[in-house]
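Per your request, structure below.
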């Protein structure tokens, strides 16, 4: 049973859904909770199968010396997985389990029994095999919260200088051929507003960039006309409303993140020429550079919900599930971000 309000004064209660049980979600959670960097002011409530978590803990201990949180010492909302689990082999049963776990974890936050939500990775195809037709956790969480305009933003703090890299996606989990249909002037303006609001958490007058849609940002219409026809005009109109904000773009996608990559690694903390936030127009356009620059530090943050939700920026990693070699850094960053962003 969740200890409602017990930690209101001294602890930030975070509900953690454990992701697809055939993936690495349980492993990275146990490792992150045992880390010396785990925020002591967080109180984790795990949502998943206690028995499967205990089996995972025992297996990881048998594989060698590794720091792990002991499930016996954790608060767990037990939703049993009623099948034999084989690491790395997702099924419709594991898909259904992860769907039920994230749904319950979200309900804890919505009803005030937890302050925020962290979600371990799920497999979209396993959800669909189980009959849950969603493109991802973001869409399910938006439905549960009654929101129509949830956004995916990826944020990471450089370990070299503390500079923060932020990338917002204009479109999320959709096929590439649908991107052009969904990109509209209204959508771009709304996403720029969302990106500005987030970046102002850290800087009152942030610098923003927006990537072009076509190679070379269209090359003045030679390689595509979207930039000339509507993207440049909507940026100019948005700038009129926000004259205090420096916004650059559309920038050719292949160079849009170069200054951010330099700022990420700069030991001198000289990042004044780098954007505080970048708007990518589609999923891979934003996530390829984010993961190349900050794979182990990046955090997926859902904006537009009435509660804070973060997640590691990687997937279920079925290829290494059960081997004990999963890196918990992104999960730890997701937990640390819960306090910083709240």
């Amino acid at each position: 049973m969740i200890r409602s309000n017990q930690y209101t004064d001294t602890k930030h209660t975070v509900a953690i859904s454990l992701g697809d049980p055939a993936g690495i979600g349980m492993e990275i959670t146990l490792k992150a909770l045992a880390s010396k960097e785990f925020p002591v002011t967080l109180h984790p409530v795990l949502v998943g199968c206690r028995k499967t978590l205990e089996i995972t803990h025992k297996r990881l201990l048998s594989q060698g010396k590794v720091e792990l949180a002991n499930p016996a010492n954790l608060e767990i909302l037990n939703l049993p997985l009623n099948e034999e689990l084989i690491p790395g082999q997702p099924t419709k049963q594991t898909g259904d389990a992860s769907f039920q776990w994230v749904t319950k974890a979200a309900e804890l936050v919505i009803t005030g029994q937890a302050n925020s939500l962290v979600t371990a990775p799920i497999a979209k195809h396993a959800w669909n095999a189980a009959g849950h037709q969603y493109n991802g956790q973001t869409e399910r969480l938006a439905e549960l919260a009654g929101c129509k305009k949830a956004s995916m933003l990826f944020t990471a703090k450089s370990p070299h200088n503390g500079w923060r890299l932020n990338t917002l996606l204009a479109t999320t989990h959709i096929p590439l051929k649908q991107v052009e249909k969904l990109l509209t002037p209204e959508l771009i303006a709304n996403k720029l507003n969302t990106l500005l609001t987030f970046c102002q958490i850290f800087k009152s007058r942030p610098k923003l960039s927006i990537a072009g849609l076509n190679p070379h940002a269209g090359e003045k219409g030679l390689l595509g006309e979207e930039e000339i026809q509507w993207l440049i005009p909507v940026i100019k109109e948005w700038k009129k409303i926000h004259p205090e904000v420096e916004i650059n773009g559309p920038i050719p996608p292949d160079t849009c993140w170069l200054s951010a990559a330099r700022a990420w690694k700069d030991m001198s903390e000289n990042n004044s020429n780098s954007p505080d936030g970048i708007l990518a127009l589609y999923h891979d356009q934003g996530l390829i550079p984010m993961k190349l620059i900050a794979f182990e530090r990046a955090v997926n943050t859902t904006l537009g919900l009435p509660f804070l939700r973060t997640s590691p920026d990687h997937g279920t990693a079925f290829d290494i599930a059960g081997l004990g070699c999963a890196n918990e850094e992104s999960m730890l960053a997701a937990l640390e971000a819960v306090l910083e962003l709240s």
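Residues 1-148+305-342 form a domain with the Isopropylmalate Dehydrogenase fold (CATH 3.40.718.10).

Regards,
D.
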